[in-house]
């Protein structure tokens, strides 16, 4: 997915503003398994996925708990590092060979100050990130694992071929055994 399309999908900006953002962006290729962000470190830059898939996870009691999965068009950032410049709690790992766009926080902050169009885009990005977090949290509280799996199948069926089942189970808040049972019932 092209960076221009990703930016405009968040909030359309003028061509002049777009050119300013694009001039500050860098395209990076990274292999499957690469850790883009690591728990305990500071990574305040923002990444957008051109091609590939990633997961964000925390390690707890010897297990990796996946709490976010992103694919083409998604924004990758550690809010804790970006907002507070503090070490992040999550690790973000590439699950496929990936192409990413990177925007340095320092460049983005400068653009926010100089261009109201880009500042409005940044506000909209923050709003969408809050909404994404809410849309993930609320179903964990009020829906069954089977319902969460059905929603995953409806919205992003390609994840079944792109992410290991143990990561998907963790993302759904269940064990791999429970996921296997749910999948068997739905066949």
The number of strands is 8
Major beta sheet summary: 4 strands, antiparallel
- Mean pLDDT across residues: 93
General shape: globular
Q: What is the helical fraction, as a range of percent? A: 40-55%
Model description:
With 187 residues, the protein is α+β, with helices and mostly antiparallel strands. 51% of the residues lie in helices and 24% in strands. The protein has a four-stranded antiparallel β-sheet with strand order 1-8-3-6. The chain has a four-stranded antiparallel β-sheet with strand order 2-7-4-5. Strand 4 (53-60) and strand 5 (63-71) form a beta hairpin. Helix 4 crosses helix 5. It starts with a helix and ends with a helix.
What is the secondary structure topology, with strand pairs?
Elements: H1 3-10, H2 15-24, E1 25-30, E2 35-37, E3 46-51, E4 53-60, E5 63-71, E6 75-76, H3 79-84, E7 91-94, E8 98-103, H4 105-114, H5 116-142, H6 145-155, H7 159-162, H8 165-172, H9 176-186
Antiparallel strand pairs: 1-8, 2-7, 3-6, 3-8, 4-5, 4-7
Relevant terms:
four-stranded antiparallel beta sheet, globular, 9 helices, alpha+beta, 187 residues
Gist of the model:
About 50% of the residues lie in helices and about 25% in strands. With about 190 residues, it is of the alpha+beta class.
């Amino acid at each position: 997915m092209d960076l221009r399309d990703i930016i405009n999908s968040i909030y359309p900006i003028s061509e002049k503003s777009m050119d300013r953002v694009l001039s500050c962006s860098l395209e990076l290729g990274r292999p499957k398994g690469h850790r883009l962000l690591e728990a305990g470190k500071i990574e305040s830059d923002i990444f957008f996925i051109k091609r590939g898939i990633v997961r964000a996870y925390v390690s707890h009691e010897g297990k990796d708990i996946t709490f976010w999965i992103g694919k083409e068009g998604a924004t990758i950032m550690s809010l804790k590092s970006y907002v507070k410049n503090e070490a992040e709690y999550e690790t973000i790992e590439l699950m496929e060979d990936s192409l990413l766009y990177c925007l340095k926080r320092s460049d983005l902050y400068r653009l926010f100050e100089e261009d109201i169009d880009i500042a409005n885009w940044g506000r909209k990005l923050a709003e969408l990130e809050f909404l994404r977090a809410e849309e993930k949290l609320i179903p964990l509280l009020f829906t069954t694992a089977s319902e969460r799996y059905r929603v995953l199948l409806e919205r992003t069926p390609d994840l079944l071929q792109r992410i290991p089942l143990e990561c998907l189970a963790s993302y759904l808040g269940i064990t791999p055994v429970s996921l296997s049972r749910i999948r068997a019932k739905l066949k």
